[in-house]
Amino acid sequence: MQTSKIDKTKNWTVDDYVLLGETDTPCELINGELFMSPAPNPLHQEVLSNLNDFLKAAARKIGGKVYFAPVDLYIDSKNVFQPDILFLSKDKLTLITPRGIEGSPDLIVEVISPSNTFVDRNTKKKAYLDLGVREYWIVDPGNKTLEIYTPQTGGDTPIFYLVEEGEVKSSVLTDLTFNLREIFSVNP
Questions:
Q1: SS3 of 94, please?
Q2: Please, what is the Cα angle at 142 between 139 and 145, to 5 degrees?
Q3: What is the CA radius of gyration of the chain?
Q4: Which of 134, 139, 152, 168 has the smallest CB count inside 10 Å?
Q5: Cβ neighbours of residue 20 under 8 Å, at least 6 residues apart?
């Protein structure tokens, strides 16, 4: 077995990141620093899978695509993120390249965990909204909440916030509706 070491003294670029090749370990390039993390826990994965089912069905109806992590989203020369879910409308399918998604998806979902809360709520939220993502969803399985941010709100206040239950609607995927309870409904 080969062990990977991260050079913390190096200011990583997209070119360096691409040289890593494919890996089973989730990797992201955030502000020139390489981050590797263990696989998400089962609750994270179940919530993500439930969300993916709803988003994928809605996207198919309008000719769009949904990608489930890991897929690389190239932000700029020092940032490559792997959002949990991203949606591309039919008009944005040209952003799909052999190495990942290069440009602004319409919608991004991040399911937060204790280890990534700060990055998802701050660094990534700002980067996604600056990139032009029309909706950024933060899903918190621990608190059973869903927050939706848009560039119009400046990322400070969610335009939509639900706790445990209530109907989720999207301005990006207008035919999408589901009860929040359905994403947090997991089998033991």
A1: helix
A2: 40
A3: 16
A4: 152
A5: 27
10-69 confidence digits (pLDDT tens): 777 777 777 776 766 677 778 888 777 777 888 889 999 999 999 999 999 999 999 998
How far apart are alpha carbons 45 and 99 in whole angstroms? 24
Contact between residue 61 and residue 39 where contact means Cβ atoms under 8 Å apart: no
Q: How far apart are the C-alpha atoms of 128 and 124, rounded to whole Å?
A: 6
CA separation for the pair 63, 48 (Å, rounded):
21
Burial level of 171, CB count in 10 A (0-12/13-18/19+)?
middle
What distance, in Å, lies between the first and last C-alpha atoms of the chain? 33
User: For 119-150, what is each residue's pLDDT tens digit?
Assistant: 899 999 999 999 999 999 999 998 999 999 99
Chain centroid offset of residue 176 CA: 18
- Residues 99 and 105: their CA atoms lie apart, in Å, by 15
**What domains can you pick out in the chain, each with its CATH number?**
41-184 (3.90.1570.10)
How many whole angstroms separate alpha carbon 172 and alpha carbon 187?
Answer: 30
Pairing state of beta strands 73-76 and 100-102?
parallel
pTM of the entire predicted model: 0.87
- Dihedral (Cα; 122, 43, 137, 124), 10-degree rounding: 30
Question: Cα–chain-centroid distance for residue 122?
Answer: 13
